[in-house]
Structures are given as structure tokens and as C-alpha cells.
User: Which sequence fits this backbone?
């Protein structure tokens, strides 16, 4: 991005153009309007999301009314968060783990997910192609 770019326009178009997302949940994740906006957009667009729970358990994540988010957005943010909490993800405890290991695991999962998506796309394309009779 460059100065003068509209932040949400760039973020939204990037999310719509990607195939897999990674959401890194921290204890303060739900305090951020931007994080919740991005998560909601991923979930609404039915993108595959790989959650990484850093120093927090999925059950601890909650959208709260803290004045950071417009009240009309809260239901959609809560729904997206519930969907993410019910998605198998990775966990990281900074007091015990090595962040590099989690990053490597996440990268491998994203790569494998992209391969699966491409394979599904090709097999769907083949199933729609009619067979030619000799």
C-alpha cells in the first residue's frame, strides 16, 4: 500500500482475491475493529481460514462492546468469531513454544490447502467436461 490508498478498500480486495486466510488470535485480538472486520469478511466470503491461537484458548475469545466497533457490526463480528472458534487451528503458548515452529506449521497448512483447492478446482472442471464418443 502507498500513501493515499484507502485502507479498507485495499484490505477488502486482498481478502476477496485470496484463497486461504490465517487469523492469529491473541488476548487483545477482539479489541481491534480491523481484526474483526477482516475475520468477518473471510467468513462471509467462505474462505478457508487457519486459526492460530496465541496465548489464548478459543473459548476465551469474545467480542465486547468497548466503543471500538459500531454496534450494528457486533452481530456479524460475533458470528465470524464463533465460526473461527469452531475451526480446527494451531495453538501457541509463548512461555513454552517456539514461534518458528508454529509459523512453519501454518505455512505448510496453507500450502497444502492451496494444493487441495487447486485439485478440487481441476476435478470439478473435468467433471463438467462432456465425454466425446468416437
Assistant:
Amino acid at each position: 500500500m502507498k500513501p493515499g490508498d484507502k485502507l479498507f478498500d485495499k484490505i477488502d480486495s486482498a481478502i476477496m482475491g485470496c484463497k486461504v486466510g490465517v487469523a492469529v488470535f491473541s488476548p487483545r485480538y477482539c479489541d481491534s475493529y480491523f481484526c474483526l472486520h477482516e475475520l468477518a469478511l473471510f467468513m462471509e466470503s467462505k474462505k478457508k481460514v487457519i486459526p492460530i491461537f496465541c496465548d489464548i484458548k478459543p473459548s476465551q475469545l469474545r467480542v465486547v462492546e468497548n466503543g471500538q466497533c459500531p454496534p450494528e457490526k457486533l452481530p456479524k463480528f460475533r458470528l465470524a468469531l464463533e465460526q473461527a472458534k469452531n475451526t480446527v487451528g494451531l495453538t501457541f503458548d509463548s512461555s513454552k513454544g517456539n514461534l518458528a515452529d508454529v509459523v512453519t506449521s501454518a505455512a505448510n497448512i496453507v500450502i497444502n490447502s492451496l494444493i487441495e483447492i487447486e485439485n478440487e478446482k481441476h476435478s470439478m472442471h473435468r467433471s463438467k467436461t462432456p465425454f466425446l464418443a468416437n
